[in-house]
Amino acid sequence: MNGIISDRDISVVVQGAVLGQQTIDCLNSVRKFLPNSEIILSTWEGTKVDYLDFDKVIFNKDPGGIKQVLMSTNNFKRQLISTKNGINEVERKYTIKLRTDFFLTSCDFLKYFDLFQKRNEKYLIFSHRVIVLSSYSRFFSDTNYNPPIFFHPSDFFFFGLTEDLKSYVNSVDLPKDEELYSWKCKYPNKSPYPFLCWKFSPEQFLCLGIVRKNFSNIKYDDWSDVNDYDTFLMSEKILFNNFIFLDSDMSGVASRKQNWILKHEYQVPGLINFSVFLEKYKKYCDDSFSLKKDSFIKKEQVLKFYVNTNRKKLFKHYKKFTTPLIVFFKWFGEIFSIIFYFCKLIIK
User: Fold this and answer.
1) Which residues pair with 58 in a beta bridge?
2) Does the N-terminal or the C-terminal CB of the chain have fewer CB atoms within 10 Å?
3) Residue 3 φ/ψ, nearest 5 degrees
4) Spacing of C-alpha 282 from chain mean position
């Protein structure tokens, strides 16, 4: 252990579908690196679990995923239910949230939990910082025109005080199906990923619940609503006063399924890697902080989005050109939905 936090004070919520060897490796890794922790497996009714190593199991009713045209299934409802029901069972002081397709390679993340003490009380949503991964923690998109993305910490892994994580997950209501599948964005030409018809990403739904609970004046109608620079600043101040963003090689958290993104956190534009976190910690929390890692950032790409009119004009014409193609492919994809449900009707 790290000499400060005992694994006897930690519960590990492993959430999601049981995925054979991946989940076996996940649970075994927790036993190896946190042998005295409590393991709570939060999965689905009807799942066979008698061969797995855990202390407590929760069988949730599966809400199902939301099918997306030409895309994979949106499983946010599944994620939220299994995460919320698992964390609400925790009685120990600290909680780890881990997906069933992730595993631990160490418990190095514990070393960072108390390192970044300075915080601005005006922007707090937690009583203590929560650790998340850099992978898919975003502050702008990696598409060609790089629009900003607000309130987007990664949801792969959490570590924090149980009271904070309970507040985090319990502040979120299940979204409506249309918000996960067929949402019409307020500003379609500024959607960070136009091919995803979401109101918000799963990460944003999760974060915005507690943000709006504490800051009711936040104006952010959907993830395309990025015109207000003040909202961008509010997002940054809240994120960097409440989270610690760790790179995968620092955290001791790994996944075979997500291995590519975990290994390329400095190659993918828009991710909040640890170097970005150090820069922002110094900017928003502690101006006397001495940077200890190479954190040189060549461009503030989010800021450029607001001031570079040529970028806006270029994207405006690009969007006019590509929008009919996107609409066509969405329309074409409905053919597969018609065939799918027709076949189900015939089979019945």
Assistant:
1) 42
2) C
3) 90, -10
4) 23
Which tokens belong to 317? Answer: 């014409």
The rounded distance, in Å, linking the Cα atoms of 323 and 194 is 9
C-alpha 263/C-alpha 273 separation (Å) is: 11
In tens, the pLDDT along 21-43 reads 999 999 999 999 999 999 999 99
Mean pLDDT of the chain: 88
Evaluate whether 84 touches 151 at the Cβ level (below 8 Å).
Answer: no
Q: What is the pLDDT of residues 45-98, one digit of tens each?
A: 999 999 999 999 999 999 998 876 655 778 899 999 999 999 999 999 999 999
* Of 264, 262, 273, 255, residue with least CA distance to 105: 255
Enter the tokens of residue 106.
């160490």
242 CB-near residues (< 8 Å, 6+ apart): 119, 123, 124, 125, 126, 129, 130
Both tokens of residue 86? 């698992």
Indicate the pTM of the whole model: 0.83
Q: Is residue 340 part of a domain?
A: no
Would you say residue 334 lies in a domain?
no
pLDDT value of residue 66:
83
Q: What are the DSSP calls for 202-225, one per residue?
A: HHHHHHHHHHHHH-TT----STT-
Q: How confident is the model at residue 302 (pLDDT cuts 50, 70, 90)?
A: very low
Q: How many domains does the chain have?
A: 1
The per-residue DSSP string of 51-103 comes to: TS--SEEEEEPP---B--TTS--B-HHHHHHHHHHHHTT--SSEEEEEETT-E
For CA atoms 276, 280, 281, 282, the dihedral sign is positive
Angle at 173 between CA 68 and CA 212, to 5 degrees: 110
User: If you count DSSP H runs as helices and E runs as strands, how many of each does the chain have, helices first?
Assistant: 11, 11
The predicted structure's pLDDT at residue 299: 35
Within-domain flag for 332: no
Residue 51's domain comprises 7-307
